[in-house]
């Protein structure tokens, strides 16, 4: 319910949302905890925590490299749950796990949902799990009162958007353009068209991501969507300052500056 | 017994479509385009015509007399896919899919390649039709298969090296998928094995089934009966499913798929998905057996042959394995290398290192069989591409 509450709060305040993405364990789990707390301090709407995977086929090079760095730290989903449990002592910011399907499948879906709920995770977004393949998983999530966030893309037909509308909860993630994750210089018009198409079928909040990396682009996105997701731009800063002792401070500044002024 | 997948591309629990949402509509479009041509006689006639006149089908079914007699057991026939144009069975699928891409109005073709045989076949058919062609290949494979890299470039294709992960086939597929998801409006992804999201495993199997259809007719002509055993190497599994599929209903025909046993049975040192470490999971669009760790990360694999060096296996094979219809075994690097030399010296045929795995198993079991029994081994490709590598290894 944290996600729903947060979005209705935004609505009451007539403002829009900011959703940062970071990869768990990059540069290490201890720093990930501090980074989550920093992103909570700048009032992020939801934090997307990436589960590192050996074969991130939908990601651009920045997040691929983050995954590789994280995997060197030799941990799994169990350790990510421990981390979230720890974080929950200090913040109620909504947290979703952003993952490929195979690591979740190997953990065991039933146990995954129970443990996620117990740890204080709010939902899942699975890059390579489309609604047709998600039936079992989404029923389990529902049973544990967790949200299933689906992606929609400019290539999605109206029929597919309807299918997502029936199964999604929490919010819907609209991919701004065809392609992998990663910063782009210009945002695309296709995102606005997609968001407007989706509104016909669903009242859930819609976040837009893929390619958003500046405050101007966030402001642009806020004109038509409920929230903007920034991933690669933040992860690139983490890459740059990974071994800097002021990493957390720098990321807090950087992410804070992505929020449009006034 | 039904060996067709359901409408969502599942054989039993294996297959499906595990891809980013962006690719779903394109896959739906591809599926309807494929089903439109699947029973279209004009398309099939055009396909068959190119298989004959461009690629040289039917390929012969050759009785390996000296090999059979030396081993003193089963009569061994070789299905000579090595004699097809570009030197392997990969050309069958490349012709089929390029014809389909043309019908769909796509002008840009992308492909992944492991050993380079699929890349060469794709580059060849693209040259034939004047289509733009980009091939992704792991840099480790580019090193192992330098000659094929040059062949692709000579044919006018752009070869893009992939430096991530294990720098082999799996990583080339990741990169091809990234290209496809980015350029989906203009681009056709020509997947080379019976892998990936629906409809690829079905489509590739159908295009490769000419291997088995011909072999069936040829053995009936030569021996007046069906073979007792079929043997083929299995990487992703396209040459083997192409040979096996037309015989699946023939209960008395046994089948063995030979995986790459690599250096040892330790996870990371082989590419045998049905050995230890292989568990059901999802990779690159399909649910099948995967070599992975407990956390679901994909293991590194090793094989002497780039074409078998892959962590997953086509979903139809996973199904046939669980059903017990096909037996899966492995041959290791050393056995394959030895078979490579044995076939060269007893029959005057240099096999691809991939196909050498099938030959190696045939050599292992033929002596236990009777001279009245007939075995057909798929010689999926020729070994010219491997000669440099083998020369280094034997030095």
Give the SSE layout.
The complex is a heterodimer of chains A (262) and B (395).
Chain A: H1 2-12, E1 17-23, H2 29-41, E2 47-50, H3 61-71, H4 77-87, E3 95-99, H5 101-107, H6 109-119, E4 123-126, H7 135-143, E5 147-149, E6 151-152, H8 158-167, E7 172-175, H9 190-199, E8 206-209, H10 215-222, E9 227-230, H11 232-241, H12 247-256
Helix pairs in contact in A: 2-4, 2-12, 4-6, 11-12
Chain B: E1 10-11, E2 14-18, H1 24-38, H2 41-53, E3 61-63, H3 65-71, E4 75-80, H4 90-103, E5 108-113, H5 117-129, E6 132-138, H6 139-144, H7 146-154, E7 158-162, H8 169-182, E8 187-189, H9 200-208, H10 210-223, E9 229-233, H11 238-244, E10 254-262, E11 278-283, E12 285-291, H12 315-323, E13 327-332, H13 333-347, H14 353-365, E14 374-379, H15 387-394
Parallel strand pairs in B: 4-14, 5-6, 5-8, 6-7, 9-10, 9-14, 10-13
Antiparallel strand pairs in B: 1-2, 2-12, 3-4, 11-12
Write a brief structural summary.
Chain A has twelve helices and nine strands. With 262 residues, chain A is of the alpha/beta class.
Number of strands of chain A: 9
- What gyration radius of chain B follows from the Cα positions, in whole Å? 19 Å
Poorly predicted runs of chain B: none
* Element string of chain A (H = helix, E = strand): HEHEHHEHHEHEEHEHEHEHH
Task: Characterize the overall form of chain B.
Answer: globular
Distance between the termini of chain B: 50 Å
Q: Compute the average pLDDT of chain B.
A: 96
* Count of helix runs of chain B: 15
How much strand content do the residues of chain B show? 15-25%
Describe this structure in words.
- The complex is a heterodimer of chains A (262) and B (395).
- Chain A is α/β, with parallel strands linked by helices.
- Chain A has one domain (2-256): TIM Barrel (Alpha-Beta Barrel), CATH 3.20.20.70.
- Helix content of chain A is 46%, strand content 14%.
- Chain A has helices at residues 2-12, 29-41, 61-71, 77-87, 101-107, 109-119, 135-143, 158-167, 190-199, 215-222, 232-241, 247-256, and strands spanning 17-23, 47-50, 95-99, 123-126, 147-149, 151-152, 172-175, 206-209, 227-230.
- A nine-stranded parallel beta sheet of chain A has the order 5-4-3-2-1-9-8-7-6.
- In chain A, helix 2 packs parallel to helix 12 (247-256), helix 4 (77-87) runs parallel beside helix 6 (109-119) and helix 11 (232-241) runs antiparallel to helix 12 (247-256).
- The longest helix of chain A is centred in the N-terminal third of the chain and has 13 residues, at 29-41.
- The model of chain A has no long low-confidence stretch (mean pLDDT 96).
- With 395 residues, chain B is of the alpha/beta class.
- Helices cover 42% and strands 19% of the residues of chain B.
- Chain B has 15 helices and 14 strands.
- Chain B has a six-stranded mixed beta sheet, with helices on both faces. In chain B, strands 1-2-12-11 form a four-stranded antiparallel beta sheet.
- In chain B, strand 9, helix 11 (238-244) and strand 10 form a beta-alpha-beta unit.
- The longest helix of chain B is centred in the first third of the chain and has 15 residues, at 24-38.
- Chain B is globular, with a radius of gyration of 19 Å.
- Classes of the chains: A alpha/beta (262), B alpha/beta (395).
- The A-B interface holds A 53-58, 60, 64, 68, 71, 76-77, 100-107, 127-130, 132-133, 150-157, 160, 175, 178-180 and B 8, 16-26, 28, 164-165, 170-171, 173-174, 177-178, 181-185, 279, 281-285, 290, 292, 294-298.
